[in-house]
Amino acid sequence: MGRAQSFDTAAAVRCARQVFWETGYEDTAIPALESATGLNRSSIYNAFGSKRGLFDAAVDSYLDEVIRPLLLPFTASPVAPDAIVEYLGRLRSAFLNADSSASANGCLLINSANAPIARDAAVRETVAAYREELRAAIGRGVAAHRPGHDPNANARLADACTAMIVAAFALTRVDNAAALQCIDTAVQLLDHHT
Question: Taking the CB of the first residue and of the last residue of the chain, which one, N or C, has fewer CB atoms within 10 A?
Answer without folding.
Answer: N
